Amino acid sequence: MAGHSKWANIKRQKAVVDAKRGKTFTQMSRAIILAARSGIPDPTGNFQLRTAIEKAKAAGIPNDNIERAIAKGAGNFAGDGSQLEEIRYEGYGPGGVAILIEALTDNRNRTAAELRVSFSKNGGNLGETGCVSWMFAQKGVCIVESVKNEDKLLEASIEGGAEYYEMTDEDTAEVFTEVADLETLSQTLKNQGFKVTEVELRWIPDNSVEVSDDQQARTLLKLIDTLEALDDVQNVTANFEMPEQLMAAIA
Q1: CA distance 71 to 36
Q2: For residue 199, which of 210, 190, 208 has the smallest C-alpha distance?
Q3: Contact 174/197 with Cβ under 8 angstroms?
């Protein structure tokens, strides 16, 4: 998982730049719409919606856009007839790397066609539902920055129902828990004075594929970039490990 975690960190560092692209605005707006539609359209009583709004604000999305997305999700936005649905696609990348794609779309045929082309042009193939999802388990993750005392982090994590944590940088940690316990963990960490900068659901691979060949690595990362660039795609997860030096050289 180390290689993929490193890649995730690189992507987070680019978040401020990426937020200037319409793609990110579309992604986050759709996440807000779905959250408002699947629960109450009030962030105080809807953890998923509250989290989506926090991410949108951190990315610099204007409040007007956020309010419009909430209204669309609640069905209160005049003239909006689009119906978004959440779909998970699965496939294989170069070297047999398992890939999960989470999408929000108003046209599943269009999305599937775009994904199929992206896979075929980059050394992979789109598979059937269930072909790789069995290799992953979904967890809740709190990203905590400015960690000064690991012992205190451990105590707060246990109190909040965490399963484990990993230090991804000198003072940054990722704290993992069951999906149902994510809100409790996030609030406990905040109450204990920790700086929780992001709260998310993440697919964690049970096993990984080592990618050390330069050409294979480049093709794989190009495939992931291509998938992430599609408007309907919200998130891409893969089960590869890659040496940090190779990752840095390509990135």
Answers
A1: 8
A2: 190
A3: no
Identify the residue whose tokens are 């599937």. Answer: 112
**Beta strands at 240-241 and 136-145: parallel, antiparallel or unpaired:** unpaired
**Can you say how many angstroms the Cα of residue 68 is from the centroid of all Cα atoms in its chain?**
23
Nearest to 176 by CA among 133, 208, 217, 142: 142
CA distance 49 to 70: 9
In this structure, what token pair is assigned to residue 139? 């967890």
The CB density around residue 125, as the number of other CB atoms within 10 Å, is 12
Residue for token pair 């993750």: 141
All domains of the chain, ordered by start, with CATH? Answer: 87-133+206-250 (3.30.70.980)
Residue 243 pLDDT > 90: no
Per-residue pLDDT tens for 149-173? 999 999 999 999 999 999 988 899 9
22-26, 49-53, 226-230, 244-248: least confident range = 22-26
Q: Look at residue 124 and give its three-state secondary structure.
A: coil
**What is the pairing mode between strands 125-126 and 85-92?**
antiparallel
CA atoms within 13 A on the CB side of 142: 29
For 16, 66, 73, 78, 197, the CA distances from 59, given in Å and listed in that order, are: 6, 12, 20, 26, 12
User: 231: how many CB neighbours lie within 10 A of its CB?
Assistant: 15
Going by pLDDT thresholds of 50, 70 and 90, the confidence category of residue 2 is very low
Tell me which DSSP letter residue 44 carries: G
Q: Which residue, among 218, 141, 151, 214, has the nearest Cα to 181 in the 3D structure?
A: 141
pTM above threshold 0.85: no
